Amino acid sequence: DDMMDVYGIFYALTGDGYSYPELYKYAKLIRRELLAVDGVKRVIIGGNRDEVINVVLSKEELSRNGLIPTQIMTALSSSGQTVDAGTYQNEGDKLRINVSGLIKDEKDIADIAIKTTDGKQFRLGDIAKIERTFSEPQRNGFFVGGRQALAICVAMEADAIVPDVGKLVDARLAEAMKQIPTGIETEKIFFQPDKVDDAINSFMVNLVESVLIVILVLIFTMGFRSGIIIGFGLILTIALSFPILLVCGTTLQRISLGAFIIAMGMLVDNAIVIMDGILIDKKRGLPPQTYLYRIGRNTAMPLLGATVIAASTFICVFLSEGSVGEYANDLFLVLCVSLLVSWVLALIQVPVCANSWLPRREKEKRGSNGVMNSPVHRFVRRAIGFLIRYKKTTISIAVAVLLLCIGGMTQVKNLFFPDFDYKQFVVEYYLPPQSSPDRVRHDLLEMSELLQKNPKVERVAASMGSAPAYYCLVRPMTSGGDCYGELMVDCKDYKTVVEQIPVIRKQLREKYPDAYIRIRKYNFSISTSHTVEVEFSGPDPAVLRDLSRQAENIMRKSRYVDPYSVENNWKPRGKSLTVDYVRNDALRSGIERSDVGNALKAASDGMPIGVINDRDQMVVVNMQVRNGDGSRIKDLHDIPVWSTINLHAPDINPALALGGGVDSDKLQDDMFRSVPLSSIADSIRLTWDENVVYRINGQRAIEAQCDPNADLDEATPAKVIADIKDEIESIQLPQGYKMRWVGENELQSEAIGGLMKYVPLTIFIVLISLLLLFDNWKKVILILLCFPFVFCGITPALLMFNEPFTFMAIIGVMGLIGMMVKNAIVLVDEINRLQKEEHQEPYHAVVEATVSRVRPVLMASLTTIVGMIPLIGDPMYSSMAITIMGGLTIGTMITLILLPLFYTALFHIKQPQTNTDNKNRDI
């Protein structure tokens, strides 16, 4: 199997009154049918109980004849495998030669001939009990609603369209069920096609809502016809982007659809600038051939530069390595393609539609001065003049607010990724090491029954040992061994999941105090065992355990840590029995150390002595040694130990033996007898051993682990680390030992490091683009100075909505760079144009450019902000949406207020001494 396969289609097969072999028979039929479906790569069956054939010997019989195990193994080896007997050629025919006598089932094993040392021969079935049964104890199993079940898990091809394959699989399964008896049923445990469909449908609704909201805002603020023209361009942009993205290999999923929603406001920015310029020039009475194309000629390159910059800010995500970068890299492709398409359409579609849809003549031609003399324009003009007059005070206040908001970011919750809004969660259940698998099975079924009584719980599926398959990328996949089990609990919706988790957690922990129970939701950072982990590495296990113990004690003292969750990944030491093997005594009896192990295995779980092929499955044959009544041997000292070469008679002369000078009974006894374990072992003692010892890069490593306190809203992994970091890092490490933070902190550091690695490239693109546009370092610095002030909007927005600052929010901050720079470019370019083309004084150019760009800047920000509204309820994008909405709200004020102030300060522009009020009235 490919370890990268994800079995995203996961069914349970149940049947009251049907045995495991019967269920497995029909599960194989279903597997055969599903493998024929296009797009299906693999189908596995999980949760089946392994059948074994046990050859049960009494210890008394084995004590009398130690040759029996060797004869059984030899017979199975020679008769249990197909032999190559060659071919026979005769008169042109070539015939394959087969040899009969192949052992096929337990009946054939019972007929194996056993020969004693005195020449007698008898059937194995006459001296041993031969039975076909299930392997005991049960180490893996799958149950749904407390009923035994089999898991049928389907992995799809890498290039498969998930919803389409899901429909084909569902249809083929329905056909296959017609061949299966009544009473056997299937139900979906996890069905990725449905989740993909739900996500796509939800985002398509969000996308449509976003488009409609933006168009309505445009109509309300720019007029019906202008809004329809820009809205039509927005729809064209999205429609033309899809085929281009398809060629680029982008698929339709929540990231690509979410990227369209993020870009929604930016997609109309260019069209707003062009449309606003057309409307202004039209009101000035310019002829159509002038007002339709003048603004495009003047702003084409600045808008292209701004578009390139806006797209390039997401290039870090595209180039970022690792799973997070792979997951989110479609953001860049969607934004890059759609923004460039929007730029082209703004220059072509807007003028064409404006020529056809706008009225040919204005009712009143206002001239070049009357257009910008509305009450709003006059207010902005006076406000800008006032702020420029007191620019030092205004800038000082803005810097103070910025510092306050940067400090306020420490009060914002910090998460790597939010939880997915799945209506299913996982209960992990650990018993202490060496706990019986039978108890795990009992407790899982008991917990299933308990949770099924909860009216808010729809279904409970239980699995022993581990999940039946790796069926989801964003769920905890734990292989806890014989003492582990898990429950997959389904509720009505995600809201119910959030409500019920604290209730169920408390209920299960109180009922099973000696078990370690943890509840986990689906999360992108789920690949770590715990969200907070610190690793110690070094040579001595005892020293490592002591270092981990110190760290665990520190974790327990933190109010932000769930004390129940504190543990280490080596788990507690486990009890074991150690047989003190006496080599000299054993060798005198011809017993090797491996023989002792085989005898103990046979007396306990059973020693595998062969495998037979039963149709399409391999059945292991075990040899078990039991008391005469079939019970297990309690006193290990009495276990008979035999050897495959049980010959060690130093007192016998070989020449005499060959010549008949040695008593035959004594010779047979020395050669083939078994001996009790007590004769070759000093003692059997109880010891404590490490069950698991992890190694990192060949060196022993232990992790102290914990999770945030779920009862505290402010408790996050980042908060926990901030609270315990100094104390843990002050632990004295012996020479040769190291400490490092792992867990979610490591994943987050790698993801952010992957982004930061390419930030210099983004900065380079932004700087080069700005220099090509303005050819002036002061103007580049002026534009970049505005960006930090977006935190004046980000911090209050996140705190107001109680949203965490996630990895997606970081991407949102990077996207804000492009959005802010885009608005700033439009304003600075207009200042340049007024000075060069209309020969205005620098001060009046700054003021009039700001006044003329009020509507385009406000509209660009407003459309982006309202376009984000559908994403507020999405768990993946909500923090990014809030970040962009808050940052742009203040960013608009920054562009219209701080940028003119910075411009006048950097270029030493002073307000003229003339009566500005009269000047303004003249304008």
Automatic annotation (TrEMBL):
Q: Note the InterPro entries from the entry.
A: AcrB_DN_DC_subdom, Acrflvin-R
Record's GO cellular component, any one? plasma membrane
Keywords in UniProt for this one? Membrane, Transmembrane, Transmembrane helix
Q: Where are the transmembrane segments?
A: 203-221, 228-252, 258-279, 300-320, 332-358, 394-412, 755-774, 781-801, 807-828, 857-873, 879-903
Offer one Pfam family short name for this entry. ACR_tran
GO-annotated molecular function: xenobiotic transmembrane transporter activity
Say if the entry is tagged with keyword Transmembrane. yes
State if Nucleus is listed as a keyword.
Answer: no
Q: What domain of life does the UniProt record list for this protein's source? A: Bacteria
Stated name of the protein: Efflux RND transporter permease subunit
